[in-house]
Amino acid sequence: MKLLKRIGIIDIGSNSIRLVVFDGPKRSPLYLYNEKVFFKLGMQSFGGKPFDTNTIEAVLRIINRYVAICRNMETSKIIMFGTSALREASNSAVLVELIRKKTNIDVDVISGEKEALYAAQGILLGFPNAEGVICDLGGNSVEFANIRKGLVSDCNSALLGPISIKKLGKKFVGLDSYIRSELLRVINVKSVKDKPIFLIGGSWRAIAKIHMQRTKYPLKIIQGYKVESKKLKKTLEFIQDSSFLNKYDEMNISSERLELLPESARLLEIIIDELQINASTFSSFGVREGLIYQNLGDAEKKKDPLIEAAKFFEKKEARFPKMSKYTYKWISPLYKDLPRKTKRLISAACKLHDVAWIAHPDYKMEMCLELVTRSNISGLSHKERVFLAMILLFRHKAKPEKVFNTKLFRIVSKKKRKIAFVIGKGLRLASTFFGEKNLFDKIDFRLRAQQVDLCFKSKIDFINGEVVERRVQELNKALNSYVTENVEKKSF
After folding, report:
1. Pairing of strands 279-283, 197-200
2. Which of 89, 218, 308, 439 could form a disulfide with 45 if both were Cys (CB 3.0 to 4.6 A apart)?
3. Structural domains of the chain sorted by starting position, each given as residue range(s) with its CATH number in brackets
């Protein structure tokens, strides 16, 4: 596992200016600092117009503050880039030069094609096996690219961001036809039709958030949220309704973002129709994360972001940081016939199940739940995230009847819930023997007829006792359990 040397990335966009400081494992970086200021540069630059003096001064103040934060955090490197607004403004070179003089940092004004490339690489950072179309929506522009077998192609850009659509809407009666013609100009529809689509950008994330609220979806993390087009289009129609802004003035979405959502929703509806998209996956990873991916070596790119993150937390937080590989091997009778994808999640659980020790006993389960379901650990679908969380809950003292009947955990199948129950109890039993790594070699873990039996070798019977016997009984109960669903219960 290789670690990043702390990196600050400043993104001068058309709708906001953002600073993100990355730290932690290279293949699965952590967000050490994340701040944005809404600033509609795209409103001024549309059509090649210049930035006025007040705008330039305001941008410089924001940038100076961000650079000071990075330097106080002792970042090894500060990367600054600009997108559509800086591409379009007639005097952007003046702003770029002033930033360089004030901060001694060059601003990379990236092309639309390069923006699409970085956005696609951001998807690969979070979803290493991703294949399909990426669509990155900024304020002024929208970028598209294809991903196939880890390679990015067909990078293109169009001035169809919500700011551009809002501006055009005042002039064009046939706005939908214009949007369709621009999409066909930059996308080879035949090559992307029916393929999965990954949606990147703040407006897409806001739409996902609204859809979650309307459908009472129990997991509030955007990364990896997948929605069927038929269901999503109902929310898109709702957002385009004239009364939408009045209904959502109290939601936890900024007014600056909300006022551009009707245009964003219209664009997405047209994209879904034109490309015949069956389902959309929302991503919180994009251009900034793509810059991290760009600087990874080939060997690092091939690593699993979930496993790398789990290794990081194990090394940093676990009391017994070298025990996971012995644990994984020892409990193998419980999972040996399961699919490879499930074994991957069990491997991650073995690395993560001892990281909540610092919490009060009454809150260890909540800490495990937070770590998996509300952090930016990548390489997980929502179902995988919930399955992993269930294993960690059962590793502690979670009651199965309460977990199984909680809406969040019904995202996964009954079969997967039982597997999580069994593996969690297997980890709970294994943790009893963390005194030394060789101990597992002296205890035979036997599984016969859905019953676990332990055989102690080499005169180590003294290890056996009430705690071990109780945890063996818990595991056997899990192996013979039947998952039922009743009224939802809140606590675990």
Report:
1. parallel
2. 89
3. 7-109 (3.30.420.40), 113-289 (3.30.420.150), 304-479 (1.10.3210.10)
Q: Which residue has the higher pLDDT, 370 or 487?
A: 370
Q: Are strands 30-38 and 16-23 parallel, antiparallel or unpaired?
A: antiparallel
Query: How is the beta sheet containing 77-82 ordered, strand by strand?
Result: 30-38, 16-23, 7-12, 77-82, 107-109
Q: Are strands 77-82 and 7-12 parallel, antiparallel or unpaired?
A: parallel
244 φ/ψ angles, rounded to the nearest 5 degrees: -55, -50
pLDDT exceeds 60 at position 379:
yes
> Distance (Å, rounded) from C-alpha 454 to C-alpha 378?
36
H-only helix segments in 147-186: 162-169, 175-186
- For the chain, what is the largest distance between any 2 Cα atoms, rounded to a whole number of angstroms? 87
Residues 168, 259 contacting (CB under 8 angstroms): no
- Count CB atoms within 10 A of the CB of residue 58: 16
**Averaged confidence pLDDT in the chain:** 91
SS3 at position 25: strand
CA terminus-to-terminus distance, the chain: 34
| 413-448 per-position pLDDT tens digit | 999 999 999 999 999 999 988 876 678 888 889 898
Q: What letters, b where the CB count within 10 A reaches 16 and e where it falls short, cover 78-102?
A: bbbbbbbbbbbbeebeebbebbeee
Alpha carbons 224 and 280: distance in angstroms, whole number:
10
Can you read off the two tokens belonging to residue 417? Answer: 């819930």
pLDDT tens digits, one per residue of 270-284: 999 999 999 999 999
Token output for 363:
């809150």
pTM recorded for the entire structure: 0.92
Q: Quote the CA–CA distance of 400 and 405 in Å, as a whole number.
A: 8
What phi, psi does 399 have (nearest 5°)? -90, 125
Closest CA to 141 of 208, 206, 88, 197: 88
Nearest-Å Rg of the Cα atoms of the chain is: 25
Percent of the chain with pLDDT strictly greater than 90? 70
**Lowest mean pLDDT, pick from 158-162, 291-295, 363-367, 451-455:** 363-367
- Which residues sit opposite 132 in a β-bridge? 147
Whether the per-residue pLDDT at 492 is higher than 80: the answer is no
CA angle 178, 182, 185 (to 5 degrees): 140
